[in-house]
């Protein structure tokens, strides 16, 4: 599949609406964050997330709401969570949202800590920092998707974290992006286009049962 096919969009695609969906999806993520507190379960958090989505006027989900707490932060996207996990007093969690606004797909994720958990804070910040490093390489060097993910893996190891190689980023666009069959960002042999690809970063502590996740659109930095 050539670059043009991988980056095909629908007739209604609008870069401004992609940014709009991105902004509102970040707002939704932080709205959920405000509701997270010790004792909440993943199921309860997802139920409360629906209220946040309604307030923002979300049209639909394009992928399930993912909220991972504690040891479940080491799980990959397709792995089921351990049941019954609740947010502890000094703990971490991440939120991964795929929401549709104005017919365009937002996809964002971030990791947060409650209480006093310095190692978990360091892990969450490392995922954010690694995302920014890789995104900067895309902007400044024009690297292709494969090189970006090779670099992410190398940098994660140098930073002292295990990198999740199963996550390789993906396409977004006007809904549904799946009709364009863009494939994984990590398998892309050309420079990914602006505002079309999600860079996903997931790292895990080398010995302890927690990790961190961060994702956002490869585009100009969010305001």
UniProtKB/TrEMBL annotation:
Segments forming domain Peptidase M24: 17-182
Top-level division of the source organism's lineage: Bacteria
Stored InterPro entries: Creatinase/aminopeptidase-like, Pept_M24, Peptidase_M24B
Name recorded for this polypeptide: Peptidase M24 domain-containing protein
Biological source species: Dyella nitratireducens
């Amino acid at each position: 599949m050539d670059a043009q096919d991988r980056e095909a969009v629908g007739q209604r695609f609008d870069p401004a609406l992609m940014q709009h969906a991105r902004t509102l999806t970040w707002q939704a993520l932080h709205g959920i964050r405000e509701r997270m507190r010790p004792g909440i379960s993943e199921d309860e958090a997802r139920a409360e997330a629906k209220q946040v989505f309604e307030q923002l006027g979300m049209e639909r989900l394009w992928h399930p709401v993912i909220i991972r707490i504690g040891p479940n932060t080491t799980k990959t996207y397709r792995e089921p969570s351990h049941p019954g996990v609740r947010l502890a007093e000094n703990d971490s969690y991440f939120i991964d949202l795929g929401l549709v606004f104005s017919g365009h797909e937002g996809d964002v994720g971030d990791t947060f800590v409650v209480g006093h958990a310095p190692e978990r804070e360091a892990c969450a910040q490392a995922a954010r920092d690694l995302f920014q490093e890789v995104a900067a390489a895309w902007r400044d060097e024009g690297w292709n998707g494969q090189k970006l993910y090779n670099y992410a893996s190398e940098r994660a190891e140098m930073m002292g974290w295990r990198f999740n190689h199963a996550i390789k980023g993906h396409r977004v666009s006007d809904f549904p992006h799946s009709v364009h069959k863009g494939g994984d960002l990590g398998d892309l042999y050309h420079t990914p286009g602006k505002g079309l690809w999600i860079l996903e970063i997931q790292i895990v502590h080398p010995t302890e049962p927690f990790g961190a996740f961060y994702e956002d659109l490869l585009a100009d930095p969010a305001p």
